[in-house]
Structure prediction request, 569 residues.
Amino acid sequence: MVRIRHQYSYWFAAPGIALYLFFFVVPSLTSFFFSLTRWSLTEWTFIGLDNFRAFLDEPFLSKAIANTFVYALATMVPKVLIGLPLAAFLVSGFRAAGFVRSVIFFPTLVSTVGIGITFRVLMNPTYGLIDQALGAVGIRGPEWLSDPDLALLSVAAVDVWSGIGIATLIFVSGVVSIPQQYFEAATVDGAGALRRFFAITVPLTRPATATVVILALIGGLRAFDLIWVMTGGGPGFASDVLGSVIFKQYTAGFYGLSTAGNVIMFVIVAAIAYPVSRLLTRREVDL
Amino acid sequence: MSRRARPAGRGRDVVKSIVSLAVVLVLFVVPFAFIVVTALKSRSESAELRFTWPSELHLIDNLVTVLETRQYMLVRAFINSTVLTVATVVVVVVLAAMLGYVLARRHPSRVRSAISAIILAGLIVPAAIVPTVWLLQAIGLYRTIPGLTLVLVAYGLPFCTVLYRAFVSTIPRELDEAAMIDGAGPARLFFSVIFPLLRSITITVVIIQSVSVFNDFLHPLYYLPGNENVTVQLTLYNFQSQFNTQWNLLFMNILLITVPPLVMFILFSRRIVSGMTSGALK
Prediction:
């Protein structure tokens, strides 16, 4: 028997692939089936699309879907609009830049639970530091987390606070890769700082922008832990998103409905992430 | 990395520094300082939720009280989280390195692109949670640290494999050929020639993965319910109701479980930064 031993045998990759298939791919595939059932984890009854109908018919469930989009946009847009100018500012060169960057990055390393609890206290309308500080300058602060119109956006603001470090970092690596000569030539031609930012920095950091947009969108659509710790989806169902509905239905024992929520999230994430990544990475920008 | 080539006046430098430090201080340092001062206060003083320096320090008694709560649950949680983190990171590193190596070295083929596509999907697609619970129950690993470890390895593999794959392709193939001529088999080639060369990316992977596993809340919440195998993040979450009026203890808890990631950050900040960006930009 002739045995051809491949130097880079797939057997070498097999343990990783097997584990990944078993614990990630198999549950993902079976979720399509279980989302069509009433399920007790041991027994299931096929009920067709009833779970999905429930999501569309029940106001608090369809509100969760809408909230998921709102949350994804409300976290993504500020990360880009703050992150890119901030990155340009940080690489413009001044003594404290390195320190500032580290401090902004630090929340990335603190657990979401810790951040959530801390900001729940800071956002307390009576005792919280934020409203006290606003009160000191004569502004009556809102009820960040107990106002139904505001709760979801308050959590999104905390999400931006904790995630702006990574976004800025990605933008920084995009900005430093722009050849310095472009800026010099523009300066010689009389372009001011603002003009240079919009004519050079913004178009040439497009790959970094694409990365931030996609990461923030995916993260926002999958959001759960910060919302759960800060509001528990409330007040009422005002800040419920797909992630929190999946958990609530799971703890209530509605496993089929919970899985249907997962499938909806799966479809939304895939349907958005794929075209967005194609669109944003389609062409390189030249000067 | 930062460029100071552009001529910026000294005065301008000072203004930029002072303004940005002031903004960062208010927005980022104050929340952390708040955690620290609250953790050091007495129960009654912490209840006022004010941002003031404690009138007397309660570092030791708060620390001891938090650790003793519910029969040293936080201590057990620290042990559980450490075991979980170390086990997950070790397995992820070895498996992702092998997988990334094979994907980088194989010539393009249908099998290779199929594997790549499935792995890349894991970067985007949210995990199906309830079917995973069902699966873990079926194999008897639900509510166990080994079960959660295997699941977290599967969730961490895509990102780490992408990093390893990109890194392996920068190592010249001539090295492989030289080792083969010297008689090294596939396993020998990988473990004694390639893997040591992956050291710098391995350190990055270890840091990113350990911080994310240690700070993970979602997956222990689903796959490790109950008080038996609680992790530090679950402990903090569960203590909320018990420490409802004891903010000093709750914030001491936050402070304690932030120490390991903080130490990582201080020791390896440059590496964390480079790793996160290289992973993000591919």
About this structure: The mean pLDDT of chain B is 89. The first helix of chain B runs from residue 10 to 39. The CA atoms of residues 143 and 225 of chain B lie 6 Å apart.
